[in-house]
Design a protein that fits this description.
- There is one protein chain.
- By secondary structure, the protein is an alpha+beta fold.
- The chain has a single domain, classed as Gcn5-related N-acetyltransferase (GNAT) (Aminopeptidase).
- It has 7 helices and 10 strands.
- The strands form 2 sheets. The chain has an 8-stranded mixed β-sheet, sandwiched between helices. Strands 1-2 form a two-stranded antiparallel sheet.
- It is globular and about 50 Å long.
Amino acid sequence: MMNPNNSNAFMKPPNGTVNKTMRTALGRLQIKGPIEPQELSECMMPGGLCCFRPSGHQQKSLVELAGQPDGMVFTASLANTIVSYVSFQKPDYRWWEKRCFPELIELGSIETDPSWRNMGLANALLDSLFNNPDFTFFEDFIVIAFQFIHSWDLQYTGHSPWSYRRFMDRLFTRYGFNSFETNDPEVREHPCNNLMARIGKNVSTEIIIRFGGCCLGKNNIS
């Protein structure tokens, strides 16, 4: 959502715009977001949510992100215990900071507690954001999602790097993401790394062309 008085201003959807329930074998979950920082700080985060950093540190990071003008966190929770989440922000990797534009946003992290995996929580979260007729916020944006081998839970899942890459490709492709060639040196550090992007229905051809140029190292605006 862009401010009509300032095309460069990012406006988050109101807190709690997404609010759904999901039945599981372990109880009824609430899928909700964006989450207010205070509410997020009062939740519990299991120790298994540690793919990016220890769960306590990750929760602190998510609380800080939720309080940023361009930060959003969506959660699946049982009572006040978060079992899965997805976060968004303006791209902060060096390559993309130099080439960021108003219609570009990053899906920064998605994670499910190991004891809740194989229940479709990642799909339920992404469904609520990208296949929800009552929530079309992301149709105005190009959403990028970096797939980096160093953030994958290879040890717990037993996947090889390439099988995990195929798993992530299938997950994101289901929601309109596609792989894009890029000269971003961080993506090119490992052949399993990947840049995926979802182009919203309302994004103009001009912006799509600009994004393609950014992927290949053009449009450096720093």
